[in-house]
Amino acid sequence: xxxxxxxxxxxxxxxxxxxxxxxxxxxxxxxxxxxxxxxxxxxxxxxxxxxxxxxxxxxxxxxxxxxxxxxxxxxxxxxxxxxxxxxxxxxxxxxxxxxxxxxxxxxxxxxxxxxxxxxxxxxxxxxxxxxxxxxxxxxxxxxxxxxxxxxxxxxxxxxxxxxxxxxxxxxxxxxxxxxxxxxxxxxxxxxxxxxxxxxxxxxxxxxxxxxxxxxxxxxxxxxxxxxxxxxxxxxxxxxxxxxxxxxxxxxxxxxxxxxxxxxxxxxxxxxxxxxxxxxxxxxxxxxxxxxxxxxxxxxxxxxxxxxxxxxxxxxx
Length: 316
Ligand code: NDP
Description:
Rossmann fold, seven-stranded parallel β-sheet, 10 helices, binds NADPH dihydro-nicotinamide-adenine-dinucleotide phosphate
């Protein structure tokens, strides 16, 4: 049996911790899990950390920490720490189950816009027979996906299968069957001009902050729609709201905000052409995520490379 190793966990509160512990007990019994508060009392014992939003300075208190695992695909909550031990590897969660769940949510959001689901829900809530004929079929509305990583690629594949023409924008050019690839800042205007339904699945970086704002929304064809499912930092919410009110945007599905939760008083909650969800686009189970972390630790301890490492030079 392997030597005792200890992993500090800050993801999902105490109830989440109990579930993480059960998952890892089945996968790697020699890996001991410590709830965050306990880990902070016993910092010298910690080898690994599994975290979503550690408080600033906390990770620097573990002198023998070897690897930081993000409990989600984006590690922006970890990078906020000014005292982050920068020499340590940070592993971003990358599991097919998460990409599949994101693809499902993305298709639901895009189909909701195509079928005017918000309008139908409002009518139902009033008991009104709001008969209308939605003008578009899937092949008449192009979907442009910002970010063709794990999440964006699976979403693009699933949207293609539904019959949508799909375009993708990323830093480097891609070859994906049936997906027209645009790359880099210079090609963003051309990508936006051809996009009827814009989906954002970028990571949160300084370059992607506020990429969806009045100026870029104005490059979309009139009556385009927006699906914000990456991070709240990607959009200027006031600009999205103004575009909805002004008719530039025909609809929006928004899952991510800055800050979260979106305040109850925010007009988007009640907007007749917006669907608001509470950052639930892709929530893989703890069992799905624990399997990835346990496999990564086993590989690391065999001296093999860690998967899906955060790259400080790229910022994601
Ligand atoms: P990846 O790192 O696999 O992919 C990121 C993609 O964005 C890549 O295609 C990358 O380009 C592209 N990209 C990054 N920076 C730029 C830039 N400046 N210009 C153009 N393209 C850029 O990430 P994932 O697919 O795993 O996750 C994406 C994001 O989805 C996460 O960071 C998170 O913010 C969000 N997310 C949201 C969830 C939710 O529930 N709402 C759940 C999970 C994730 P290239 O391929 O060239 O490197």
